[in-house]
Amino acid sequence: MLDESPKRFDRIISILIQLQSKRIVKAQELADRFEVSLRTIYRDIRSLETSGVPIYSEPGVGYSLVDGYRLPPVMFTREEATSFIASEKLMETFIDKELGKHYASAMFKIKSVLKNTDKDWLSSIESKVIIQQPSVHLFNEKVPDAMSILFKSIANKTQVKLLYQAFDSDSFERIIEPVGVFHDNNNWYIFGFCHLRKDYRQFRADRIQGIEQTNILFVREHNTLETYLNKEKECPTTQVILLVDKKIVKYLDYEKKYHGFVSQKKIDDKIEMIFLSRDIENGFSRWLLMFADYATIIEPQRLKERMLEMLESYKINLLK
Q: Which positions fall inside the HTH deoR-type domain (predicted)?
């Protein structure tokens, strides 16, 4: 019992901090975070209430602190402070200028409450951590506040107007209701309901040529971003089987998962690779072109035809 008391005290303090960080916190959310039972969370909440913390609870909704109640600023441990370095470097590299500026301002405030010894500790590490710039531009430099506007749109549930440059067309205007943003395969994407197409679409952040916040509220109730992304994974697929030279397989490890990789096995001196591709007409076939001289297409026949079409088009363009 003596061993458990310090752990319980730390957990109760952490619960109080989490209650301050969000307007409503569900009991199950707390139980999952601290890996304890719901009964334990209920007991910890009662302990906070007994100590005078004004907690409002509503069955089926969650817990929240009464408006106006705040604890003095919480000091960070050295380990927590160290984690700021990685997050700061990542934000400098992978977010747009506007949000990056706000994050830098927030970091100055956070660092201002650290003990002097911890400030020195961070200073000694900061210059030793470098995150290389991505090889492509994640955002259009002419639209430095795209992510900031999208976040406001999601929070306020207001539509945004995009001027968007598709891969193979001129710029066009779209009115969307953003559901969320996600980073995948070295790019940021915005997923939202497009009023022109009357359906959900995703847009790459670097192709946004202009963005404008509107005061028009969403006309739909949207599910969580994860719901739609999981549904996209259930789209119709085509099985692709390739025989690939062993010497090239290791170079495909990073990107193969983005093209529906399923499995691979050794067959004589080759590696059989199986994919379930959602786009053999463009995405998969263009990727395959990079190592086509080291691969044999077993199936489908349509992929073979598509590769020949692309090579013939390339030959014609080369001779112009």
A: 8-63
- Separation CA 267–CA 121 (nearest Å): 54
As a whole number of angstroms, the distance between CA 300 and CA 297 comes to 7
Residue 129 C-alpha from the chain's centroid:
22
Closest CA to 146 of 215, 98, 94, 218: 98
pLDDT tens per residue, range 84-135: 888 888 888 888 888 888 888 888 878 877 888 888 888 888 888 888 887 7
> How many CB atoms neighbour CB 235 within 10 A?
9
Cα–Cα–Cα angle for 30, 35, 41, rounded to 5 degrees: 45
3-state secondary structure of 119: helix
Q: Say if CB 175 and CB 108 are below 8 A apart.
A: no
Provide the pairing of β-strand 55-58 with 187-194. unpaired
116 to 81, 111, 252: CA distances (angstroms): 12, 10, 47
- pTM for this model (two decimals): 0.62
H or E element that contains 254: helix 253-256
Q: How far apart are CA 206 and CA 203, in angstroms?
A: 9
